[in-house]
Amino acid sequence: MSAADGTPVSAEEAEALFSHLSEHPALVVAVSGGPDSVALLVLMARWRASSKHPPKLIAMTVDHGLRPESAAEAEAVGRLARSLGVPHRTLRWTGRKPKSGLPQAARLARYRLLAEAARKAGARHVLTAHTLDDQAETILFRMARGSGLLGLTGMMPESPVPVIGAAGIMLVRPLLTVPKSRLLETLRAAQIPYATDPSNSDPRFTRPRIRALMPQLAKEGLTAERLALLGRRAERAEQALMHMAVASMKRLAAIWPPSESVQIQAAGFLDLPEEVATRVLYCAIASIGHDAPLQLGKLEALGSKLRGAAPSRRYRCTLACAMITLKGELLTVERAPARRRAPKRP
């Protein structure tokens, strides 16, 4: 598919983008009212109309209640959806809003509401309109925070909804290879209006500041296409390292896969390259059913401490609800005991 700027997305391209979704009985299309999501709705409706056995489409808009215009924008999406023959629902984020970390809180609230509504509607897939430009911004954002290879892979075309309680609901990003400019041209050619969220250019937030840098970076050759290429190459490298880590676990672990306890040959573990050893620790902790997030920096620090531990002494620590013990010839990973609550004072 051509990525040329200024060209509407054709029916043939839409078929290539969405055909793998035809096997699902129902799909939720997340539509904020901005150009990207409106274009996704329009393209999905066109694709459905030309398909022999299309899935049911349900458009959903999350009104965060953060701007006076948000309610009217949700109503406009509803009118557009109905004109396209797509049922529409507005979901509202109610309650108190945080004073700090608002973009992240709003993002998680949006995914939670969409996942809950999708499950009630009998849909297991929520489609979002993340574009090639969004992918490039995500990779730059993670680079600025010192992310490892996994972070540099960017967004996946399909991944679980990242909120508690959304098990079984998947996020699908069918437009990750499409530049935003082509979606804008698609709407212009069809004379379809869309809303503009001022927060997308608000310099108080990190994403808009990164977005503002993109034109200058592109002049130096760091285009969205090349950043996305970096993401694909990082994904290949990450897959190779994880393959090596899983093979190492099978070779070195006395009890694996999932168990209450994983025992790893210490000498073999300490001889692994650091990148592989870090992923072995991740696999071991994940295999006992950890219920806390695993941060790369903490995994790296743990690996460093294990390599520096005295061979004749026991080293023990906890990480992500797991207890890790290095003693003699064994590295043991097991569930950490529940923390004892301090007795209440009379």
Structural write-up:
By secondary structure, this protein is an alpha/beta fold. It has two domains: 11-220, Rossmann fold (3-Layer(aba) Sandwich), CATH 3.40.50.620; 238-335, Uridine Diphospho-n-acetylenolpyruvylglucosamine Reductase, domain 3. The chain has twelve helices and ten strands. Strands 3-2-1-4-6-5 form a six-stranded mixed beta sheet. It has a four-stranded antiparallel beta sheet with strand order 7-10-9-8. A hairpin with a 2-residue loop joins β8 (315-319) and β9. α1 (11-18) crosses α2 (35-50). The relative contact order is 0.10. The mean pLDDT is 91.
Radius of gyration: 24 Å
- Please state roughly what percent of the residues sit in beta strands, choosing from under 5%, 5-15%, 15-25%, 25-35%, 35-45% or over 45%: 5-15%
Q: Roughly how much helix do the residues carry, as a percent range?
A: 40-55%
How far apart the termini lie comes to 71 Å
The CATH architecture assignment of the largest domain turns out to be 3-Layer(aba) Sandwich
Order of helix and strand elements from N to C terminus: HEHEHEHEHHEEHHHEHHHEEE
Shape: elongated
Category by helix and strand content: alpha/beta
Low-confidence stretches: none
| Main beta-sheet annotation | 6 strands, mixed
